[in-house]
Amino acid sequence: MSVPGFFTAVPDYGLPHPEVSLRLILTAHLALVKAFELLRSVPPAGFLLSTAKEDDITRQLHWIMENRLLRSKEVAGFDTRRIKNVVRAPEVTNYDGQHPAKKPDLVLFLLKRESLSVLRSHDGIFAECKPVDDAHPVGTHYCDGGIKRFINGDYAWAMQEGMLIAYARGGRTISKDLTPVLTSGSRYTELGFPSAPAVVSISRASENSEALHATQHQRLFAWPAGHGNACAIRIFHSWHNCS
């Protein structure tokens, strides 16, 4: 433990945190769909989605979601009654306190859970954003550099859900490009024996965004303070065409 007493210097808390409703997860996905639509139709000066770098896309998504969509009611249910704020790259501590400055790309911190026994600094929809293109293979970048961070306790370790947001180019899709990689070689074990991606929403929502999918993964660490082995985590996959 890098900070003595870090996890015991707060009132009692339960692990895992209570589930985030599927409705709210779907709402977050629809907010992402809307944000990408805005980046295509009314992009900021000098911004071109098809050539933008990962950090530039993430910065624009954060700006739109935090400063516009949370307040405009353009996406039903995506508002400050349910979501406190959207934070880009907040510093969070991993599951055992050994790495106190992990930075998930986006975190949607939650409201209306004050009565629950949760760690408020770790109660949210944690999302990692990854390009999926010729220079960023699904296996090494999206899986090893993204999904694995939820499996090893770096991100969303107190939660039962996490999210990967893909900036897909070159016609890459979940079924064609992600599904076979999840079960290839040692990756299947390293990613917590993932289930096959399954659709959790009934529509694509946009011709440039896939329907939201989910996979289930076992986690490979024990929770702190005697809370036992970490439960499985459900990873939601929000893929968007950025060609």
Topology:
Elements: H1 22-41, H2 54-72, E1 83-88, E2 106-110, E3 124-132, H3 138-151, E4 161-168, H4 174-182, H5 187-190, E5 198-199, E6 213-217, E7 233-241
Parallel strand pairs: 3-4, 4-7
Antiparallel strand pairs: 1-2, 2-3, 5-6, 6-7
Helix pairs in contact: 1-2
Features:
243 residues, alpha/beta, seven-stranded mixed sheet, globular, disordered N terminus
Short characterization:
With 243 residues, the protein is α/β, with parallel strands linked by helices. The protein is 27% helix and 18% strand.
Describe the fold and architecture.
With 243 residues, the protein is an alpha/beta fold. It has one domain. The protein is 27% helix and 18% strand. It is built from five helices and seven strands, in the order ααβββαβααβββ. It has a seven-stranded mixed sheet with strand order 1-2-3-4-7-6-5, with helices on both faces. Strand 3, helix 3 (138-151) and strand 4 (161-168) form a beta-alpha-beta unit. Helix 1 packs across helix 2 (54-72). It starts with 21 loop residues before the first helix and ends with a strand.
Tell me the span between the first and last alpha carbons.
44 Å
Radius of gyration: 17 Å
Quaternary: single chain
Helix count from the secondary structure assignment: 5
Helix content: 25-40%
Number of strands: 7
Order of helices and strands: HHEEEHEHHEEE
- Summarize the biggest pleated sheet: 7 strands, mixed
Beta-strand portion reads 15-25%
Residue windows where pLDDT falls under 50 for at least 5 positions? 1-5
Judging from the principal axes of the Cα atoms, what is the shape? globular
Strands side by side in the biggest sheet: 1-2-3-4-7-6-5
Q: Write down the domain tally.
A: 1
Structural class label: alpha/beta
* Mean pLDDT metric: 92
